[in-house]
Amino acid sequence: MTASHRRPVPLAKCYRLLNHGPTVLISAAHDGQRNIMAAAWAMPLDFQPPKVTVVLDKSVWTRQLLEGSGTFVINVPTLSQIDIVETVGSTSGLDISQEQGLDKFKAYGLETFAGSHVDAPLLEGCAGWLECRLIPEPHNQNQHDLFIGEVVAAWADERVFSEGHWHFEGHDELRTIHHVAGGHFLVIGDGVDGKVLPRSAD
Amino acid sequence: MTASHRRPVPLAKCYRLLNHGPTVLISAAHDGQRNIMAAAWAMPLDFQPPKVTVVLDKSVWTRQLLEGSGTFVINVPTLSQIDIVETVGSTSGLDISQEQGLDKFKAYGLETFAGSHVDAPLLEGCAGWLECRLIPEPHNQNQHDLFIGEVVAAWADERVFSEGHWHFEGHDELRTIHHVAGGHFLVIGDGVDGKVLPRSAD
After folding, report:
1. B187 at the A interface (CB within 8 A)?
2. The Flavin reductase like domain covers which part of the protein (chains A, B) (predicted)?
């Protein structure tokens, strides 16, 4: 359990949970049902107020729940959760053989905790979480499958993210994962600093 | 020079150059001037035809060139270029003390080569390149600083990307870099595969 390591992230720095491009899990809940899915196409959109954008295909059930509730959560999963990410990215919560949709949380034994501002469940064991309120934009949603949200609360596992920076050293199992295609991911590595070059003489 | 290692990437797989969330360099040229800037907020938007989206602040000169020409390039830089990324992300091509804007390519000794479909220069030494045609969307551009492009050609350094997959092993200097904040980056690590979990018994 990571509850004891979970700390709030100031909204001014919450974009840093996504800035390095991790693959994320989007969760949403509405009208007694809930779902979670993988999304590699998510990024920050603004600093203040903090906004994010994520691409959700028309076929996914999480999108329906998100549109119904007007809220969602971006969970930033870890290397130790890679099979969960692959699983919820490869299965649908909509199962037409059942009366109700498949509850992936129950089907795969996923533990959750409640957010502070949204109905969507937050997945235990992630490295970071962003609670988001949907900013409805019909053109972007219908034309591009692009959803925009304002971040209203954010959290991180202090073992790997604190003071606005990631520090994965000593916690390889908590490193973020970055999907390429077909269940193949790249794990994030260590930090390095860039410096500004001098201009050439001429 | 990487020219001898540069290979075309099929458009159906070009999203994989961005899917793992690298920080990129956006280049554009218009009316005899050119510029290049860093952008951490870029991602794929669609597979077929391949589209991408990138956030460009109203203050940046590259945005003006991109709007003028209707084309741009997403360059995927490498660890060996980290100081270039930090430099072009920290300086402006608009220098009001000069009659013309600062040519960052000349000021910092950046070598380029020509694309196949666009006016924008492609930066030598990157791991990948996506030539893009702007899909004008005034609302997204004005309201969200969000620009959408269709990828019309793509290239990669075959030493680290081929057959639709990254393979950085043995080429650490060509790994992609992922900005967190303030010139601090995370370097991408090695690959790992996820697998789909069985459903619980109940």
Report:
1. yes
2. 16-168
DSSP strand pairing (B33-39 vs B165-166) = unpaired
Of B16, B86, B179, the CB nearest to A196: B86
Q: Is the dihedral of CA B177, B179, B185, B191 positive or negative?
A: negative
Q: Kindly provide the ipTM of the predicted complex, given to two decimals.
A: 0.95
Do the chains contact at B187 and A189, CB–CB below 8 Å?
A: yes
- Short-list B190, B183, B189, B198, CA closest to B40: B183
Q: Which residues pair with B37 in a beta bridge?
A: B26
Q: What is the pLDDT along chain B (202 residues), one digit of tens a residue?
A: 457 899 999 999 999 999 999 999 999 999 999 999 999 999 999 999 999 999 999 989 999 999 999 999 999 999 999 999 999 998 777 665 555 668 899 999 999 999 999 999 999 999 999 999 999 999 999 999 999 999 999 999 999 999 999 999 999 999 999 999 999 999 999 999 999 999 876 5
Angle at B18 between CA A90 and CA B148, to 5 degrees: 100
Chain B contact for A166 (CB, 8 A cutoff): yes
Question: What structural domains does chain B harbor?
Answer: 3-187 (2.30.110.10)
pLDDT recorded at residue A93: 73
Q: Name the residue type at position A158.
A: E
Whether residue B65 contacts residue B33, with contact meaning beta carbons closer than 8 Å, is answered with yes
